[in-house]
Specification:
The chain is an alpha+beta fold. It has four domains: 4-154, Roll (Ubiquitin-like (UB roll)); 156-191 and 323-551, no CATH class; 194-217 and 230-317, 2-Layer Sandwich (Creatine Kinase, Chain A, domain 2), CATH 3.30.590.10; 568-694, Four Helix Bundle (Hemerythrin (Met), subunit A), CATH 1.20.120.1560. It has 23 helices and 17 strands. The protein has helices spanning 4-7, 15-21, 24-36, 42-58, 97-101, 157-177, 201-205, 208-213, 238-253, 279-299, 340-359, 361-367, 371-374, 393-404, 458-480, 485-500, 512-521, 530-533, 540-548, 554-608, 615-646, 651-679, 690-694; strands spanning 63-67, 80-81, 83-85, 91-93, 102-103, 123-127, 134-136, 139-148, 186-200, 258-263, 269-274, 277-278, 302-305, 318-327, 389-390, 439-441, 446-452. A hairpin with a 5-residue loop joins β10 (258-263) and β11. Bound molecules: adenosine-5'-diphosphate and magnesium ion. Magnesium ion (MG) binds at residues 193, 320, 447.
């Protein structure tokens, strides 16, 4: 039996392998590129490619691919084999530096939102040496960024790398003011906690809704749901345990630090959390994790559902994005320090995040917007669509004291002046837990909880990095020119608290009273759906910030807005079509058959005993018949709404119509169908029920 340490990273061309297979000169040069972003010489690239190929072939690989993340939200790959003909009729395995650095997939079918006409469907992929190459199956995968000729990014990785760059640059300006001249880079790190459901493949195959849209579009509430909370952290069933074991092993081979796993609140729901890593690596790893989760499930006769809301009335799945920023010298900038100066610096970075979240609530909401996640945000288990921040009582009291120039108990009743008084030490373990906040400080990091389980974490981190970089940039502009640094710093923190305290909320985020207060008194945004928020990506202030920082160009933003809205429209329209189909060809016929059989049996009884009233049968047949009428009405209404969508031009108008007409018609159709399910003999029902699905994995 091989041990975890044996298999960990065994399929990754990581630092250990580089060191062992590259000459010291080539290794040093590559390391410089990875650590400092310096340009890579072609001779070095050739040497790296050769070593990579030798290593990959020794592990059984026959192909290589540039692995990238187009705007579809999944990953893409196009495999090329290493083989090259040799004059004697045999083949040799070849891989050049050029092939490593740059690839040209035929990109015509990837969404580009008008950035590129299909006839000039040329895009290229460029190696991201900061994310290690790995082997999946028989293919060497090279993590890359994906751009079109002429520049605009066609993927999620490119803007993510840009956002990390600007955050580093602005944070270094601030650190210099505090005398930290040795810092060369600041990196943002993420640990994404991934939720998912497992159902049996056999049942999954019988549900067109799950197969086509990833979620159930029909289904009456089961007699037992999550009321008892008995699943949360409960004993893991043998079938699930075997799956998790296998999953961990596959992830470890790829160098993914899968660390914890447990049952979640809903039955059949589970969570996997890795140890955090640099944002771009974490993003690559999370994409891989989602892919491997599905592959391993298939081996176990299961299907892993990554949809945000697979079951109505049962908790949905999210992805908690634990985010922090730290220096290359190993200091977490969101960790309170021991000395007054360190604490002042901590408070400044904290304020930068507070300001960023308040100024760019809309961008954060947009970064997690999908048709699937709309069902989750605002439902009773997830954070609401209104963004607010949780800091905990202690930190809150500190900020309040600074804002009001009032004494703070933690500093021996003296008026707090930054840089003079020692702030209390914040113990990570004493920060209170608030599970309802969309954006919570958890001692030395922030937990952004609005991400949907199927989202790429790239978008959220792009916006977060960019917005915080913008705060830091404004701070640095002010502080660099200040005559009295300490006073300027104090004023800046005070002003930030004053201007942005509306975003801080330490209460229960699920409470309706909070939504009212947030929107009416505090003026916070409440974009309930993707159709509501997405157009604001192009608001002047957002375009200005993102383009001035160089994270996106205006045309990239235009295209992304269009692609995201298109995606929303397509997802909902697929669901609507699936509903029409299931209601008409499966549900209505089943109900009709059952009602007919009941009626037949009643008439047989009456023939036998003419005095019988058969009230039960008569009432049931009546109810089922009127439900059948409602189902037919609902189907027609939904179909009409779908036809009307076809006549709308403009993606913003279309998405609004889908929100206003299609989604309500879908809910309306679902009602009589679910009602009929509760009245129909189970043996007639055409597909597995919620109870079957949720409690089916043994
Ligand atoms: P919690 O109890 O809040 O869920 P954990 O310690 O279990 O906290 O961590 C949850 C996730 O946060 C893990 O993926 C972990 O690696 C990640 N994490 C921990 N510290 C940091 C940090 N400084 N920056 C980013 N992510 C972190
Ligand atoms: Mg958590």
């Amino acid at each position: 039996m091989s041990t975890v340490t044996d298999i960990f990273g065994s399929m990754v061309f990581d630092d250990r392998v580089m060191r062992a297979t590259l000459s010291s000169k080539v290794y040093a040069s590559l390391r410089k590129t990875i650590d400092e972003g310096s340009e890579l010489d072609i001779s070095v690239a050739n040497a790296v490619a050769e070593a990579m190929k030798e290593w990959a072939v020794s592990k059984g690989a026959t192909h290589y691919t540039h692995w990238f993340q187009p705007l579809t939200g999944i990953t893409a790959e196009k495999h090329d084999s290493f083989i090259s003909p040799s004059p004697d009729g045999a083949v040799i395995m070849e891989f050049s530096g050029k092939e490593l650095i740059k690839g040209e997939p035929d990109a015509s079918s990837f969404p580009s939102g008008g950035l590129r006409a299909t006839f000039e469907a040329r895009g290229y992929t460029a190696w991201d040496p900061t994310s290690y190459a790995f082997i999946k199956g028989k293919t060497l995968c090279i993590p890359t960024a994906f751009c079109s000729y002429g520049g605009p990014a066609l993927d999620k990785k490119t803007p993510l790398l840009r956002s990390m760059e600007v955050l580093s640059k602005q944070a270094i300006r601030i650190l210099k003011l505090f005398g930290a001249d040795d810092v060369k880079r600041v990196v943002s790190s993420v640990g994404p906690e991934q939720e998912y459901f497992l159902v049996t493949r056999e049942m999954y195959e019988k549900r067109p809704d799950l197969r086509f849209s990833g979620r159930t579009l029909f289904g009456a509430k089961p007699p037992k749901g999550q009321e008892l909370d008995d699943h949360y952290f409960g004993v893991i069933k043998p079938g699930v345990a075997a799956y998790m074991e296998d999953l961990n092993e596959e992830l470890w081979k790829l160098g993914i630090l899968a660390k914890t796993e447990h049952n979640e609140v809903a039955p059949a729901q589970h969570e996997l959390a890795p140890i955090y890593s640099t944002t771009n690596v974490a993003t690559d790893h999370n994409q891989l994790t989602m892919e491997i989760m599905q592959k391993v499930a298939a081996k176990h006769g299961l299907v892993c559902l990554l949809h945000e809301k697979p079951f109505a009335g049962v908790n949905g799945s999210g992805k908690h994005n634990n985010w922090s920023i730290s220096t290359d010298t190993g200091k977490n900038l969101l960790s309170p320090g021991d000395t007054p100066a360190q604490n002042a610096q901590f408070l400044l970075f904290l304020c930068a995040v507070i300001k960023a979240v308040d100024d760019y609530q809309d961008l954060l909401r947009i970064s997690v917007a999908t048709a699937g996640n709309d069902h989750r945000l605002g439902a009773n288990e997830a954070p609401p669509a209104v963004i607010s921040m949780f800091l905990g009582d202690e930190l809150n009291a500190v900020l309040e004291a600074i804002e009001k120039d009032k004494p703070y108990a933690g500093t021996k009743k003296t008026v707090m002046k930054l840089g003079v008084d020692v702030l209390p030490k914040f113990n990570r373990d004493t920060t209170d837990r608030n599970r309802t906040s969309p954006f919570a400080f958890t001692g030395n990091k922030f937990e952004f909880r609005m991400l949907g389980s199927s989202n790429s974490i790239a978008c959220a981190n792009i916006m977060l990095n960019a917005a915080v970089a913008e705060s830091l940039k404004q701070y640095a502009d002010k502080l660099e020119g200040a005559k009295d640094f300490e006073k300027a710093l104090h004023d800046l923190i005070k002003k930030t608290v004053k201007d942005h305290k509306r975003i801080i909320f330490n209460g229960n985020g699920y409470d309706d009273a909070w939504i009212k207060e947030a929107t009416e008194k505090r003026g916070l945004l409440n974009y309930k759906t993707t159709a509501d928020c997405m157009p604001h990506l192009l608001d002047k202030k957002n375009v200005k910030m993102l383009t001035e920082l160089g994270v996106f160009s205006k045309e990239e933003l235009d295209s992304r807005c269009e692609i995201m809205l298109e995606n929303y429209c397509k997802s909902v329209m697929i669901e609507a079509g699936t509903m029409v189909d299931m209601a008409r060809t499966q549900i209505a016929p089943a109900v009709e058959r059952y009602a007919g059989d009941v009626a037949k049996k009643a008439s047989v009884k009456r023939e036998l005993v003419p005095s019988l009233k058969c009230k039960y049968e008569t009432d049931l047949v009546k109810t089922l018949s009127s439900l059948l009428d409602e189902i037919e009405d609902g189907v027609k209404k939904l179909e009409d709404a779908m036809v009307a969508i076809g006549n709308i031009s403009g993606i913003i108008e279309e998405s609004a119509a889908i929100r206003d007409k299609i989604l309500p018609a879908m809910s309306e159709l679902r009602l009589p169908c679910d009602k009929a399910e509760t009245l129909t003999d189970k043996s007639y029902w055409p597909f597995p029920t919620y109870a079957d699905l949720l409690f089916g994995v043994k």
